[in-house]
Amino acid sequence: MLSSAACRYKCICAILFLSLFAFCFKAYAQFGEVCGIMEPRDSTNWGIGAIKWEKATNIKGYSDKAQTIMIIGVPGSVEIQRADVVYVGHYGNTFLKVFETRGSSYKVLINSIDGGLWIDANELKSKGLAFYTYASILFNDKTPSSLGVNLFKSCLNLRAEPSRKGKLIKCISKNVNENAFHKISIQHHKEDWAFIVVQECIADPNNADFGEGCGYKVQNEIRGWTKVIDDKGYPNLWFSFSKY
Question: pLDDT for 219-230, tens place per residue?
Fold first, then answer.
């Protein structure tokens, strides 16, 4: 156990409480995409996957740098940085990014704590939590379906087959404004590739296809295969974010 290791090496067994609540309220004010339009916002390191985070659940971890046990989830003195979390559809559906594994432990919060924090798999299991790859999050029928391109410096290739050798249909750019945008849904997948539907939309005040206050219409629809997860595990598609 982490506490035994801390005592065995005569580490400081102080408990530092990390506040996620102030962070969430800050994120609530800063983020929120209109009518399910996904705009990429996080250009920082996404790591290798994420841990589903329930704000009411406290998690113990261990800091190699401070040789200290820390507890995430109780109001305290250290603010969790935006670069250490990802959202799936809603600010309340929060995941902690995982940047590295060591044995059965996962390294999180590298931007919030000097040296990051290691959380053991048994600790997660005892709290009903688990680690997920970005592929397992995206290829889950229960997750929200409104997706967009999660790239900043390039567009995403749409191909006729699930292969880099497949005929190029179109390169889909990220959404940058609310006048013209795309909405993407995954139909099925093969390994890291997915067959997707891309709806190209334009502003239309007289149309309410996306609900009240969302004056847009679908101008064109294209289908094809795209590599959803890159070779390093980064998600080339991600979910639109809502604060409502």
Answer: 999 999 999 999
Domain boundary among 107, 138, 169: 138
For the chain, the DSSP string reads -HHHHHHHTT-----EEEESHHHHHHHHHH---GGG-------S--TTEEEEE-TT--EEEEETTTTEEEEESS--SEEPPGGGEEESSBTTSEEEEE-EEETTEEEE-TTTSTT-EEEEHHHHHHTT--EE-HHHHHT-TTS---EEE--SSS-EEEESSSSTTSPEEEEEPPP--SSEEEEEEEEEEETTEEEEEEEEEEE-TT--TT-TT--EEEEEEEEEEEE-B-TTS-BSEEE--B--
59 and 153 both lie in a single domain? no
Cross-strand pairs, 71:
17, 60
Residue 227 belongs to domain spanning = 147-239
Residue-wise pLDDT tens digits, 114-157 = 999 999 999 999 999 999 999 999 998 776 668 999 999 999 99
Alpha carbon distance 142, 79 (integer Å): 30
Mean pLDDT, the chain, rounded, equals: 83
How many domains is the chain built from? 2
DSSP letter string over 41-69?
---S--TTEEEEE-TT--EEEEETTTTEE
Q: Which of 138, 172, 192 is the last residue of a domain?
A: 138
Are 107 and 209 in a shared domain?
no
pLDDT above 70 covers a percentage of the chain that reads 79
* Six-digit token string for 99: 């940047």
